[in-house]
Design a protein that fits this description.
Helix content is about 35%, strand content about 15%. The longest helix has 15 residues. Strands 1-2-3-4-5-6-7-8 form an eight-stranded parallel beta sheet. The N terminus is likely disordered. The chain has a single domain, classed as TIM Barrel (Alpha-Beta Barrel), CATH 3.20.20.140. It is of the alpha/beta class. The structure holds zinc ion. One of its GO terms (molecular function) is carboxy-lyase activity.
Length: about 300
């Protein structure tokens, strides 16, 4: 009897099934759109992606959003893919972001972005992957864009922390670990006190630096994307708990960083939902309320 109870407990502990306990609305502040990568192995599971065409990537992403109660997703990627996603998901559900990607460094001309923000084509600036191009977000190249974002009150999401292992030997020789340190943002935060900025990937693994920036600059928020599903779960929970303990529970926002793996949205939700140290109100804040306030859609 004792053995069978133990076996049952072990079976439960090892069960791969995930039953979501949080049932409220979710805002995903970090999604990507663009070409599919058929067969690409999910970095967390090693299993091939569930999306084997561009259309499937879009359809399955929207399906996962509905499954988890994601009422708003902020997407970035090629213009045509963002437009397609907005048509498929609706303008209230999908917001497009100005994307700093490999093809256009640093960003489209400022006046082009100004028009797109004013007519609502674009709602946020990000993901800004300056680190991948060897660019410091506090340097002069970014100033005209930050001035525009501050003038129009557009939120700016900047990639911080790390990238897939080996990135400097692959796509992006300009990439350096040091450029992902959230401390790099301090000069521009001082120059633009009214700018709404969020640290994408919450600066992991720069815990002390992330705490310091969030503490000193109360307007800054952070998203928990990618670290909530790619890095070891215990490492993510330790990091999240440290930020909560430091008093940052009202500044953290849910993001998945779904790239070419729609199932990653489920993994990302599970990463937060499985944190036993979070109470229902804390989960609600991270999954929805903090982003609703930061994005000013709670008014
Ligand atoms: Zn990123």
């Amino acid at each position: 009897m004792r053995f069978s109870v133990l076996a049952l407990l072990l079976a439960l502990a090892c069960s791969p099934a995930f039953a979501q306990t949080y049932s409220g609305p979710i805002i995903d502040v970090h999604l990507h759109v663009g070409p599919a990568a058929p067969g690409a192995p999910n970095p967390a599971t090693g299993q091939p992606t569930t999306a084997n065409s561009d259309a499937e990537r879009e359809r399955l992403t929207l399906e996962r959003m509905r499954r988890h109660g994601i009422v708003l997703g902020l997407v970035s990627g090629p213009d045509a893919a963002m437009a397609s996603m907005r048509r498929a998901g609706g303008d209230n559900t999908i917001w497009a972001g100005a994307f700093l990607d490999d093809g256009r460094t640093p960003l489209p001309p400022v006046e082009m972005l100004r028009k797109a923000f004013i007519n609502g084509e674009l709602k946020v600036m990000g993901e800004i992957g300056a680190q991948y191009h060897g660019l410091n977000p506090s340097d002069a190249w970014f100033e005209p864009y930050l001035a525009l974002a501050e003038e129009l009150d557009i939120p700016v999401g900047i990639h911080t922390g790390l990238a897939p292992p080996g990135t400097p030997y692959g796509c992006c020789p300009g990439f350096s670990v040091d450029l992902g340190n959230p401390m790099r943002l301090e000069p521009m935060l001082k120059r633009h006190p009214k700018l709404r900025v969020w640290l994408m990937h919450a600066g992991w693994p720069y815990l002390q630096e992330t705490k310091a920036i969030l503490y000193m600059y109360p307007q800054v928020h952070a998203d928990l994307s990618v670290i909530n599903w790619i890095i070891p779960r215990q490492e993510f929970h330790d990091y999240l708990q440290a930020l909560i303990t430091a008093g940052m529970g009202d500044r953290l926002m849910f993001g998945s960083d779904q790239m070419v793996w729609p199932e990653a949205i489920t993994q990302a939700v599970e990463g937060i939902d499985s944190a036993a140290f979070l109470g229902p109100a804390q989960k609600r804040a991270i999954f929805h309320d903090n982003a609703a306030r930061f994005l000013r859609i709670d008014r």
